Every structure is written in C-alpha cells, then in structure tokens.
Amino acid sequence: MTSDRDMPDAGREKNSKGPSLHWHVLGGNNKHQIGANSGMCVYNYTDADGAPRQKALLFDMGILMGDHGNPEDPALADSDTVIPDLAKFLYKADDPGYTPELPIDSIFLTHNHSDHMGGIPLLILMGYKLPKIYATPYTAKRLEQELSNAGLDPEEWPEIYAIAPGKAVAEGPVNVTAFWVSHSTPQSVGFFIETPEGNILHSGDFKLDQSVVWGPAFSEEQFRRIVSKPVDLLLLDSTGTDRDVTPVTEEDVRETLRELIEEHPSKRFIVAVMGGYEENLASVAMVAAEYGRTLWVAGGAHEQTLSALQDTGMSLPDHLGMELDLRILGSGKTARDLAEAKPKESIVVVTGAQGHNNTVLARAADGHHNALQLNPKTDIILFCAPSIPGQEASRAKMLATLAGKGFTVLTPQEATLYSHAHARLPEIIDFVKMADPKNIMPVHGSKELRGSCASAMKKMGKNVVHAENGDVMRVSRDGIRSIDPPTKDHPPLVGFKTLQGTTWSDRYYLMVNAPQKDVPEAPKPANNNKKRRPKIFNINKK
Fold first, then answer.
1. Domains with residue ranges and CATH for the chain
2. Could you give the CA distance from residue 292 to residue 138 in angstroms, rounded to a whole number?
3. Is the pLDDT score of 17 beyond 80?
4. Residue 137 has pLDDT above 80, yes or no
C-alpha cells in the first residue's frame, strides 16, 4: 500500500548482513503495572536494485497510569500518565526538514482500550506527525472520538483505515493479517505478521469466550486459516496466566443477573460497568430485555461507546435481536421518568466502578447527581468490574460510603458479576497449542505476571524469550536473541504531570519543546483559576 523507504543507518543492526527482522519492546513489559502497551516490527531488506530498504510497523500505543509508589523509573514518580518515548521514530509537524532515525511507516491497533491506543492523541498534542493507522471499524471510530475529545482538529488526524480480519495488509514485503479475538470490547483482534525472515504472532488482548454479544468471538477455524505458517515468535498476553481457574464467561454473568432478579424481583438494580467494557454492558442489556425492564444508561463514557456502536452498525437492540427499551439518563424529562418508574421496571448502568470522583455512581452516592437518586430500600448496587491495581483506594472508599448508607452492594468477590477480560491459564494453554510457536515472549503484564506466563510455558516444553521494555529482539527461523541495544534496561519513557480534574483538551499543557520560562501565561478561565502547564518527565537514554 505504501512505497518502500530507504533504510537509515540507525535502522540496521550493527554488523548485520542481508535481511533482518527485529521486534522492539517499547512498552507493556513493565515492572509493576499493566499499560503503555506498544511494540514495533522492523524488517530490513534490499530491493531489486540492491539498495537497502526498511519497513517499521508500530503495534499499539497505549498509556500507563502513573504509580507514585512504584514508578517504572524514579524520574517518573510524579507522573500521572506515562507513554513510550517515540522521539526517534516520528516526524515533527512543525519541522518539515526533520527526519527521525527510524521512521514508522504504519500503526496497527489491536483494540480501543486506553492502554493500547490512549497515547495516540498525546503524541499529536506533543507535536508529532503520525503515519497512517489501521484498525477495525469500531476501534477506528473510538479513536476518532478520542482525537476529538483531545481537542484535535480533524485536519491534524492521521489517516485511519478500516481493516477486515482475514484480509492481509501489505507493507512492502511484510504482510499483516488480523484475526478476531474475544475480549471485553468489540472488534478486538490479534495479528499475524509474515516476513521472508520469519513470522510473528501477536495475540492481542484475548480470551476464548464464545458467549460475547458484540464480538466477533474468537474463531479457531479463522485462526488456523490465517496462522497457517510456522510461528517463529508468539507475543503472548500474560495478564491471566497466574490464575489456573475456569474462566468466567459473559453467559456466567448473565446467569448471575437472572438469579438476582428472580431473588429480588421488586428491586431496582444499579450496575457499575467500566467504560470500554461494552461486552459487560451488553450482558446487562440482554437480561434487562429478557425481563422486560427498561435499561437506563448514565455516564459520558457509556454514551460515547453506544454512539460509536450505532455509527458502526452495531446498535444494541439490533445486536441482541430482542426488544429493548434503552434510554440515556439525563436531566429533565428522563430523570423524571426514571424517578416515577417502579423499581422493578428498571436497570440502571452507570460509570464509577472504580470509585473515581465525578463519575455517576460517586455523585449519586453522595446525593449530588441531578438525575439519579439512590434509595437503600429499593436499590441493589452491583459492581460488574474488577478492582484495578492502583485504584483500590478510591474503590474501597466508594464501597464504604455505600455500605455506611445502608445499601446492599455486591462485587465480583460476592457473586459472579464480572467476565474475565483476559484469558486464564486453561485458555492460554489451548491458544498456545493452536499456535504451536517455536518461541514465546510474554507481554502485557508486570514482571510477576510475565514470570508466571514463562513458567507455565516452560512446563509445556516451550522455549521462552525474556525481554523488558527497551529491548530489541532479532527474530529469525533459527531463533530469537537480544541485540543488546543502548535502550536495554533503560527504556525511553515520557511522563506527564497533569492537574487533577483537567483533561488534555488544551494544547497549552503540552508545549513540551518550550523552556518553562518561555511558556506564556495561559488565558484566565471564567472562574479566575489559573491553569499551569504540567511537568514533562523524560528519561534520558544511557
């Protein structure tokens, strides 16, 4: 689809002769938390005239939430958000003469979660010019929403192309083919990357759950058809490898909801679902339809996802194939309609499963929501979401507040209310058996999770490749080895110190190239509160 590019010296492995294939671990193989997932495939070769050429393909570009207690690097201790540093790989929008050392040709996205694509708006706000992006239609639509949320003019957006799993995208001599995987959000994919030097299989975030509503669900038949050649390196999602349990499916969650409604037929259910977990939302909707209850949806994150689903031909009632009374909860008439409805007639899906301030559940729990009034005598509150590492305190505070006010509250610890977003060990073993890779690199996990993955794979008799952020692995049919790059053990990362409660909608916050003393005063907002540019933390490469 694109013309080949001359390969700069920085893109070649030192003393390398002939074609070569490398995988750059940019983020995701973290010390403590999950996030900032990103990797780059670089294929070096010569064209018909003997000139050196190169293809560099980026897979995902996510954010990592800052962890003040356990930062990825001491320099990032005060950061709220962390992303891989792509300064050497991207052109600058305001400097046409600048040429990066190793320019990225294309970006491929596995799905729409922030830990996989949340860094893209930030890169543009930082002044980088991004190459074209490939994604499934729903992921593409959600990316467009995030670019708009960041205040970016469509003229600054990269070109975004919709991909169809099963149909290869040709980038020079590199073929990239997506395949469907089940996940907590629709149209999630993995990728099979084929090159003359070797083949890389990227699992994406996956599970094998066949009961997802939107899906499409993982298809073994499609997978075997696409991954029909030997896999030299499998990049394996490690998130659930430490749990050797039977996976909880969406159907399991639906059955729990049915049992609760049968047990408490006169109660109204307030269901906290995380934004981006559309499959959980669909399960609640299916049960609401089965019992003839109106489904109320409250929260900007859920409203945006429903809009994106509608725009990509996946409206909730149509996908369920059932009659569903779906309403968006707002002030005015809809608020009055909900208040006047009998408790047994409604199920309300809200944001706030992690207890964050200003979410619907947080405001309703404090009695400050303008459309949702909670009552411990008529409402049962369900948390259909896990506790996210690093956010335990806010969630615990929320649970304590609700319990103190006399509400009946159920979490996944008390009932089967959350379908695992990622495969557990039994599913991972099945997936690996299908792929039959020569080598496996655990990705998408803390050091502990990736260690559990490595141990499980070794028990299967598989060769395991260990790599941390900043490493570069040479991939060939003969094996995998680190080329010991300067970034090994010193991954280049960028951290941002934002102001609590602000968003990335003001470019003023990301004037990263201007010295602090040269940053002009921000315009005073109407409430006379001064806004300050956040600190930017760059880890110097050693």
1. 5-245+420-493 (3.60.15.10), 250-410 (3.40.50.10710)
2. 28
3. no
4. yes
